[in-house]
Amino acid sequence: MVKLNHLSVEDPDEGNPLFPEAAEAETSTLVFQNQRAVLKADSGELFLSRRENLAFSLALLIGCYSVILFPAYVPLNKAAALSDAYQHPKNLVLMNQSASLLSGPCRPRWSVDHLKPLPASAGLLDLPVFVQQDGPLRWDLPPPIGLRGTEGHVALALASLPQPGLPPSLRGRSCRRCVVVGSGGVLHGSHLGSHIDQYDVVIRLNNAPVSGFERDAGSRTTIRLMYPEGAPHAANEYNKTTMVALVVFKSLDLDWLTSVITKQPLSFWSKLWFWKEVVDDIPLRAENFRILHPEIIHQTVQAVQRYAQRQENKVPTLGASAVVLALQLCDQVSLAGFGYDMQHPEARLHYYEALRMAAMKVQVVHDVSAEKLFLRDLVAAGAVTDLTGAV
After folding, report:
1. 42, 78, 116, 232: which has the fewest C-beta neighbours closer than 10 Å?
2. What share of the chain is helix, strand, coil (3-state, %, to 5)?
3. Are 141 and 148 in contact (CB under 8 A)?
4. What contacts 24+ positions apart, CB below 8 Å, involve 220-223?
């Protein structure tokens, strides 16, 4: 018996196929198998390529956000963070200018007279300051520029306020000087605390602390402008405080004020609607609370929009609103701790913490560029004085 170990379709002498059809079939099969192998390899490479591209895109996105956010939230360098560096005022020129301003007499109507030439002045004069039962109110506009939809909440809050209008301390003097103390890092190292305490009216914002920062920020507070989520939690921050003025952003803010005054805390479910934990108790008497009139916010919006590149529904900062408030109360208005130095993202954002200026890049609520132009015009016109020189 003959056993064939190898069957070939080629002529052993010529090397030509004996059966062309079989050879073609064999070649086609080999080509097809090669194509499948190549296609499979290409598909795998394509899948790997897409996966790698997705991973690369995610890494790039995370990297971009890290560049913006991470530097803003890490502490300043060790020397800046740990040392309370400035044993002497960091700017003696500004310190001397502040001292010179306080050494002179108060000038009646100085700020208002210098405000009038500005285009925005018409809306910033003679505004109501605090909400009163018999005063004018805008029920057609929503908070914070009006009180639409809050009628019942306003009535309950006003019923708990024995003195909703101007206190005697803001009605008695013939000439008053105001200082609005901002939270800006430029206040750090200024040594302006003793000067700030000499003003007739000292206006502070939200939870900007006093305790431990008296050298730069002073110790007295005439009006602390705030909303519930921004109220200081430490009881000692209300020492030497004459008044707390609520800025209404929602009807629940009025309920919070009523609860703080009446010492009846809000329910657990009501508190869930705040975007941040709120304080239940403020160690002040009922006569020390007020509700800021929303027309202050409304006219601040109108004034700032004159400087905006795009007309958007931006909410003004409490700082800009406090300046407009001060123009209603005082003859001479000064600013301390104002100005965002966006050209130096590593600079200190607030005087009381190590958060950096870069954090302002990611906020979308305020138009800080337009506000800076607005404040610069006020300073240039002489309507307000910039004690820290950053506006």
Report:
1. 78
2. 45, 10, 45
3. yes
4. 220/196, 222/169, 222/170, 223/290, 223/325
Query: Pairing relation of β-strands 221-226 and 201-205?
Result: parallel
Nearest to 321 by CA among 290, 299, 305: 299
Residues 283 and 287: their CA atoms lie apart, in Å, by 12
Residue among 105, 89, 147 at smallest CA distance from 294: 147
Cite the DSSP H helix spans in the chain.
20-73, 78-82, 92-103, 110-115, 151-159, 193-196, 214-217, 251-262, 268-271, 294-305, 318-329, 368-381
pLDDT for 71 beyond 50? no
- 119 or 2, higher pLDDT: 119
Instruction: Tell me the C-alpha distance between 179 and 256, whole Å.
Output: 28
Containing 223, the helix (H) or strand (E) segment is strand 221-226
> pTM, whole model, 2 decimals?
0.77
CA 205 – CA 183 distance, rounded (Å): 7
Q: Is residue 144 reached through a cis peptide bond, with omega within 30 degrees of 0 on the bond before it? A: yes
Sheet of 201-205, strands arranged across: 289-291, 241-246, 221-226, 201-205, 177-181, 332-336, 384-386
Share the mean pLDDT of the chain. Answer: 81
First to last CA, the chain: 109
Four-CA torsion 178, 208, 248, 269, nearest 10 degrees: -160
Query: How long a stretch of residues is the chain?
Result: 391
Amino acid at 206: N
Number of H helices, E strands in the chain: 12, 7
Q: Which residues, 6 or more positions from 105, have their beta carbon under 8 angstroms from its beta carbon?
A: none
Contact between 221 and 178 under an 8 Å Cβ cutoff? The reply is no
CATH number for the 89-386 domain, one of 2.60.120.10, 3.90.1480.20, 3.40.50.620, 3.30.160.250? 3.90.1480.20
